[in-house]
Amino acid sequence: MSDKDQQIADDWAAALAEQADDNIETAPLEELTDESTPITEEERRRLDSIMDIPVTISMEVGRTKISIRNLLQLNQGSVVELDRVAGESLDVLVNGTLIAHGEVVVVNDKFGIRLTDVISQTERIKKLR
């Protein structure tokens, strides 16, 4: 083992020993409590009535405008330039309304999206107007 590798191993051993030290004081934490008022039975019934309404969620990589002439000339292997740069976040839309931004992930050989920024409710309401 080289001197550098030995130094790294020693640093890890020291960090683990420090972590195992019994003299560590724990910081007191306040108990989290739910201070919101409970919803009434009528509110619960109203909420239940909309919970099963289907919505369409879509992820948008980018957009572009092209003429019908160019659209008809597209074939397999054609490349369409979008208005975003590589690595930029995707838009997450519900029924056409932007609700979040995210990044593509692969889980069990399937594509998914990790939300990186959720648009606040007030901002979403402003965009509806």
From TrEMBL:
GO terms for biological process: bacterial-type flagellum-dependent cell motility; chemotaxis. Residues 49-119 form the Flagellar motor switch protein FliN-like C-terminal domain. The keyword Nucleotidyltransferase does not apply. Gene3D superfamilies: SpoA-like. GO terms for molecular function: cytoskeletal motor activity. Keywords: Bacterial flagellum, Cell membrane, Cell projection, Chemotaxis, Cilium, Flagellar rotation, Flagellum, Membrane. It comes from the Bacteria. InterPro entries: FliN (IPR012826), FliN-like_C (IPR001543), FliN/MopA/SpaO (IPR051469), FliN_T3SS_HrcQb (IPR001172), SpoA-like_sf (IPR036429). Its main location: membrane. One of its GO terms (cellular component) is bacterial-type flagellum basal body. Pfam families: FliMN_C. It is a peripheral membrane protein. It is found in: Cell membrane; Bacterial flagellum basal body. The keyword Zinc does not apply. FliN is one of three proteins (FliG, FliN, FliM) that form the rotor-mounted switch complex (C ring), located at the base of the basal body. This complex interacts with the CheY and CheZ chemotaxis proteins, in addition to contacting components of the motor that determine the direction of flagellar rotation. Belongs to the FliN/MopA/SpaO family. NCBIfam families: fliN. This is Flagellar motor switch protein FliN.
